[in-house]
Every structure is written in structure tokens, then in C-alpha cells.
Amino acid sequence: MLNIKNKFLALVTSFALWLFPFWVFAETLYNPMSGTKDVPTLIGKILSIVIGIIGAIALVMFIFGGFLWMTSAGDTGSIKKGKDTMVYAVLGLVVVFSARAILSFVFENLK
User: Fold this and answer.
1) Same domain, 59 and 85
2) 41 and 53 fall within a common domain
3) Contact call for residues 88 and 61 (beta carbons, < 8 A)
4) Range 46-70 average pLDDT
5) Where are the beta strands (DSSP E) in the chain?
6) Distance from C-alpha of 107 to C-alpha of 60, rounded to nearest angstrom
7) Assessment of whether the complete model's pTM goes beyond 0.70
8) Cα–Cα distance, 81 to 101 (Å, whole number)
9) pLDDT of 7-42, one tens digit each?
């Protein structure tokens, strides 16, 4: 029972520490959606935010794949898993940026 209480306390503490900067700087944060009046601009801003998040996730996956590869100690299964993770991260970025380019082309030609 004590172990569950410790885990819960650690979870609540880490969540509070994660939210602390948002509470402190909430009044000085920049609103990226301010001044948006038309739908293509709004969609473009949302896509830029999503692409930034996906880029960060791809970077983490690329680092994780490299970590698996470097710590494989000659195990061919771990080497393959690390290489595959890095290849899939790059392919994911290619798909996302291709989709962004296609959407930009479509929105520019709709005006």
C-alpha cells in the first residue's frame, strides 16, 4: 500500500512541476492564433504547430534508434531494430513534409 502512495505522490509532484512554468508565465505567453481571420491562415498555423510536434517526435525516435544501435553490443536483432527505427523516423518526416507541401500548393492555388 505504501508503494502505491509513493508512486501516486511522485506522479502528482512531477505533474505539478511540469505545469509550474505554465502557471507562472501564463500571462506572458504569445498566442499564435491571435489575429487569424481566414480559414486557410488558421489551418496553416495549426499545421505548423502539428509539424513542429511531429518533428520533435521524429527527433526523439531518431535518437532512440541510434541509442538502440549503439548499445546493441553486436546483437544483430538490436542493430536491425535500431536501424529500422531511424529509417521509419526519416520516412515519417518525408511523408509529413510532403503532405505539408501538397497542402501549401493546394491552398495557394485556391485563392
Assistant:
1) yes
2) yes
3) yes
4) 88
5) none
6) 31
7) no
8) 30
9) 888 888 887 777 777 666 666 666 666 676 777 777
Give me the mean pLDDT over the 62-75 stretch: 90
69 and 92 both lie in a single domain: yes
In this structure, the answer to whether residues 37 and 87 fall within a common structural domain is yes
- Rounded CA-CA distance 4/100 in Å is 45
CB-CB neighbours of 55 under 10 Å: 14
For residue 66, give its domain range. Answer: 32-110
Looking at residue 65, its pLDDT comes to: 92
Q: How many domains does the chain have?
A: 2
Same domain, 36 and 67: yes
Q: Which three cell numbers stand for residue 30?
A: 504569445
Cα–Cα distance, 70 to 64 (Å, whole number): 10
What was the pLDDT predicted at 2? Answer: 62
Are residues 60 and 25 part of one domain?
no
Residue 75 region, left (φ>0) first, then alpha (ψ -120 to 50), else beta? Answer: beta
Q: Are 72 and 79 in contact, with CB atoms under 8 Å apart?
A: yes
Q: Left if phi > 0, otherwise alpha if psi is -120 to 50, otherwise beta: which for 74?
A: left
